[in-house]
Design brief:
Structural class: alpha+beta
Largest sheet: 5 strands, antiparallel
Strand content: 15-25%
CATH superfamily: Chorismate synthase AroC
Radius of gyration: 22 Å
Order of helices and strands: EHEEEEHEEEEHHEEHHEHEHEEEEEEEH
Number of strands: 20
Helix content: 25-40%
Strand order of the largest sheet: 3-4-5-9-6
Number of helices: 9
Bound molecules: flavin mononucleotide
Shape: globular
CATH architecture: 4-Layer Sandwich
CATH class: Alpha Beta
Number of domains: 1
């Protein structure tokens, strides 16, 4: 059987073709170029760091959801640059405009398009990087893959792309909170070698946002903040770990084999720029326990089947167990540092490069809302898939 490969390069202008593409005759294999995420609740992001703006098209959102641009803005404000002394000082307000899919404050069930313009662009800050590859950034691989690149601000590799994800995540989050009182909390647990003490439960948004680091332990947060300021002064950068906990999930989200819930969460997290690791539940530390220590015994609690411990992190067999979902994502130290480093030019000559411009000395404080947004997107998509697959028909009254 011959298979036709149909390539679709999605940009904002081509978006109306998404529904057309979905209805192509069987035998066509659609190859998306990595800009679309999700199966039923789909998100297509577009835009570059120094272009006209960045945005997103959300398709598959149920109709009738009450949503306003202000609600979406709350999440974007947590991601935006310039919000404190420990993040990049680029002056972007990231004000979102809702272009379609919402009428009189309710979603219409049609594609929702949102955008935020790029206002504070300084392409001259990237002059030196035009022909020299920034160590540990995407310049070299983009150049080799595409044969050309937009050097200003890193183009599509810039974290500005994640504005679209956060805007879409705000909608997903609202649906989840209405559907099942799902609470999603991302928070910084480690910066460089400073770690917060372990604590149970899902931290409140107020505790997380009480300091610029977004670590809910105030004493540890202060130490982390001081370290980031010190590192910034030295023209250097640091990385760390963001943990995400989710309460209120039903049993049954996720599917066996390729679409395991933790596999899709891992893909979502590792699709974020600067990520280097993912672990769920006990993670790598669990390898130091024996089965007798690691197993989570089942018990009846308040009339429901629960587990006494939660080394699994809320997933069993790739399917949510109803226990708190817990996972962690590792972020590397920011690549662009204001120190001289060895590199090569596009022409293949060894040279040096000193980073310029406004950069995050540590990406984690701004990555927290992005982690939460990607979590909401994965969970909502799986919730919709679970409903469609297991809840659309009821054969229970039909004798076998
Ligand atoms: C919230 C956030 C902010 C970021 N800010 C910067 C920055 O200011 N400078 C920089 O070089 N990289 C920054 N990055 C990381 C780069 O986008 C990323 O390192 C680059 O695209 C290369 O991809 P890789 O690190 O995943 O290999 C940021 C990442 C995130 C999530």
């Amino acid at each position: 059987m011959s298979v036709t490969f149909t390539f679709y390069l999605f940009t904002f202008h081509f978006h109306p073709f998404i529904s057309l593409a979905r209805e192509l005759a069987p035998g066509h294999v659609l190859i998306f170029m990595g800009n679309v995420f999700g199966k039923l609740f789909t998100v297509t992001t577009w835009g570059e760091s120094h272009g006209g703006g960045v945005g997103v098209v959300v398709d598959g959102c149920p109709p009738g959801l009450p949503i306003t641009a202000e609600e979406i803005q709350v999440e974007l404000d947590r991601r935006r640059p310039g919000q404190s002394r420990i993040v990049t000082q680029r002056k972007e307000t990231d004000v979102v405009t809702l272009l379609s899919g919402v009428h009189q404050g309710r979603t219409t069930g049609t594609p929702i398009s949102m955008m935020a313009p790029n206002v504070d662009q300084r392409p001259e800050a990237y002059d030196e990087m035009r022909t020299r590859f920034r160590p540990s950034h995407a310049d070299y691989t983009y150049q080799m893959k595409y044969g050309l690149r937009d050097p200003s601000g890193g183009g599509r590799s810039s974290a500005r792309e994640t504005i679209g994800r956060v805007a879409a995540g705000a909608i997903a989050r609202k649906i989840l909170s209405l559907a099942g009182e799902v609470t999603i909390a991302g928070f910084v647990t480690q910066i460089h070698d400073i770690e917060m003490p372990e604590r149970p439960g899902v931290p409140l948004r107020e505790e997380i946002d009480a300091n610029p680091v977004r670590c809910p332990d105030p004493v540890t947060a202060k130490r982390m903040e001081e370290l980031i300021l010190e590192v910034r002064k030295a023209g250097d950068s640091v990385g760390g770990v963001i943990e995400c906990r989710v309460a209120g999930l039903p049993v049954g989200l996720g599917a066996p084999v390729f679409d395991r819930l933790e596999a899709d969460l891992a893909k979502a997290m590792l699709s974020l720029p600067a990520t280097k690791g993912f672990e769920v539940g006990s993670g790598f530390a669990g390898t130091r326990l024996k089965g007798s220590e690691h197993n989570d015994p089942f018990e009846i609690r308040d009339g429901a089947i629960r587990t006494a411990s939660n080394h699994a992190g809320g997933v069993l067999g790739g399917i949510s167990s109803g226990e708190e979902l817990r996972f962690r994502t590792a972020f590397k130290p920011t690549a662009t540092i204001l120190q001289t480093q060895r590199t090569v030019t596009e022409a293949g000559e060894e040279t040096e490069l000193r980073g310029k411009g406004r950069h995050d000395p540590c990406v984690l404080p701004r990555a927290v809302p992005i982690v939460e947004a990607m979590t909401a997107l994965v969970l909502l998509d799986h919730w919709m898939r679970h409903q469609a697959h297991c809840r659309t028909f009821d054969f229970s009254g039909i004798p076998a």
